[in-house]
Design brief:
Length: 398
């Protein structure tokens, strides 16, 4: 199964997300649960997967301990450095117009006995034809919704004005509440870059500057071969308590595979259509109830970023909040292949990471500034250990 429409050049990751949520049968079904019940969904996904993932880290004690424990921190999207990231868009005015006109038509405010207490058919049709988005390049300029709306309301009764104000206030509060709940969905992410170590890796000095505390931190290369390995769930749900560790290891690998996507860079945000936004309901406990199409829109939001970030060549893993909660947001990720040390890292951190690399079976590579070009270069850790050993040969008292 290949998740790409080659005729329309559709992005495979969007097709994959749609395919997952088509199998949603209950509101409570999460992305991971759907995939675990339909592991055939993963067939063909590995054809799109990279062999390695690179992640840049600041040299904090927390990050270093996570590497030692082979854990990966999954972030709340609200903590990301781009405020637009994972932030589903919507058109407030379009939603307001859609819901308001539907209300007016449904409750008899079109052609009422007193025209001051409603809209004429002509006024209603003009409002329906008005636009909430102005096109400066169009030769036919439709009336703007809000301009027309307030112009018409100037001629209506005070009682109708008060009633309309209350209706619109409720509509705005409703959409604000819905979007706030949608944006606070229990989903967490981990971000990586896909880089070619032998082509361009030494040029990305801005990544080191942005994410490693000005080259004082490190970059980890993760091998994805185990994540991409064939799926075989040998331990069943009823065996959870008898072999909990093995049960979780199998399922977290499935969840990691299912949630790994390349970011799509574009000038257009993911927006939720007004009709789908209106269909979202709240249950008796205040939880959102929405269809699988809304789920798919939300997940697509998590893999779309502004084209201005394209230099990062980002991939990310999206995980359900319940899975992350189980691990206190530090998910097992024992796939460390190499650790690259920043060119301004202090000796204490270098020594610590050398020890950790030996424990986790990872190669250590040191980065240094090139003497002639705006690039970094790699050199073997043996040079550092040799220089350190040689420094002890000098007698400080002689």
């Amino acid at each position: 199964m290949y998740f790409v429409n080659r005729e329309s050049k559709a992005k495979w990751q969007k097709a994959f997300i749609d395919n997952v949520f088509r199998r949603k049968t209950e509101y409570s079904n999460s992305f991971s649960k759907i995939v675990l019940s339909n592991t055939e969904l993963l067939d063909g996904k590995n054809n799109h997967m990279p062999e390695s993932l690179f992640k840049f880290y600041k040299p904090t004690s927390e990050n270093i301990i996570d590497i030692k424990n082979r854990r990966l921190w999954f972030s709340n999207p609200v903590s990301l450095n781009d405020p637009f990231d994972c932030h589903t868009g919507y058109n407030t005015d379009s939603y307001e117009k859609h819901v308001f006109l539907e209300y007016i038509n449904k409750h008899g405010y079109v052609e009422p006995e007193n025209s001051k207490d409603g809209f004429t058919v002509d006024e209603f049709e003009r409002l329906s034809s008005s636009t909430t988005e102005y096109d400066y390049y169009s030769s036919k300029k439709p009336e703007k919704y809000h301009t027309l709306f307030w112009k018409l309301m100037d001629d209506k009764s005070e009682a109708f004005n008060r009633h309309v104000y209350d209706v619109i206030r409720q509509v705005r509060e409703e959409v604000t509440s819905k979007m706030a709940r949608l944006r606070n969905a229990k989903i967490r992410i981990a971000s990586f870059s896909v880089l070619d170590r032998y082509k361009g890796f030494n040029d990305i000095i801005q990544m080191w500057s942005h994410y490693t505390d000005n080259h004082q931190g490190f970059c980890v290369e993760y091998d994805t071969s185990l994540i991409r390995a064939p799926i075989n769930l040998s331990i069943m749900d009823h065996d959870f308590y008898s072999d909990q560790s093995a049960y979780m290891d199998e399922r977290i690998r499935v969840a990691l595979n299912a949630g790994l996507f390349p970011v799509i860079y574009t000038a257009n945000r993911v927006n939720i259509p007004k009709t789908k936004l209106k269909r979202i309901k709240l249950d008796s406990k205040g939880n959102l109830q929405h269809d699988s199409e809304v789920d798919a829109i939300l997940y697509k939001t998590y893999i779309v970023k502004s084209a201005k970030w394209s230099y990062e060549n980002e991939w990310r893993i999206i995980l359900d909040g319940d899975v992350c909660d189980y691990y206190d947001n530090k998910v097992p990720f024992p796939y460390i292949k190499r650790i690259f040390l920043g060119c301004k890292m202090n000796n204490h951190t270098i020594d610590t990471l050398i020890e950790i690399a030996a424990e986790v079976g990872a190669e250590i590579v040191m980065m240094a500034m090139d003497n002639k070009k705006f690039v970094l270069r790699e050199y073997n850790i043996d040079s550092y250990t040799w220089d350190k050993k040689r420094s002890k040969w000098n007698n400080p008292f002689s």
